[in-house]
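WARN retry 2 of 3 for item q-0093 after timeout on previous attempt; input resubmitted unchanged.
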Amino acid sequence: MKFFADTAEIDAIKDLAATGLLDGVTTNPSLIAKSGRDFMEVTREICGIVDGPVSAEVVALDHATMMKEAEVLRKIADNVCIKVPLTVDGLKTCKALTGEGTMVNVTLCFSANQALLAAKAGATFISPFVGRHDDNGFDGMDLIEDIRLIYDNYNFATEILVASVRHTTHVLQAAKIGADVMTAPPKVIHDLFKHVLTDKGIEGFLADWAKTGQSILK
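OK item q-0093 returned
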């Protein structure tokens, strides 16, 4: 499963990229606003840090203007992935862009039927929002299971990008179901490293090593 960071914070992206485990980045208008930086500038900088897809979202709602915005965004770098909403115009734009060889991430997916439409439109990625789904009384992971089944039934190439990830259990469940990608805030990715028994084990090993009075570095 690919790991994307859901952030526009440059320092956090650099920190995760240094682990060698980061496969891409997703951004949205809210994350760009939170960063307090110029949209084009921060997107260009992110594209220079990671080799994988960097999702940059259009803000227009009509197809013609989405296409104009996408034309500007995809000139930023070769690894820009245009992000469009799951609307009729968004899928028109998706179909047109992927037909030209541009990566497209279809976002704000909340049903398997929507995911089916995105796949038929040639989406590179579909982004179902599991956390927001949970917030509204549904089971976000049931949605991922349904999409996985449908995509496998018809051999769709569209990758399932699990979004709105709130905690490490979401990551585990998505991996067990067979999602292709998950995108999460940096804190959630860092939490994946943590386990109390790992910490206790290191503490015990170091205490025993100290008793030997030895050093590996002479």
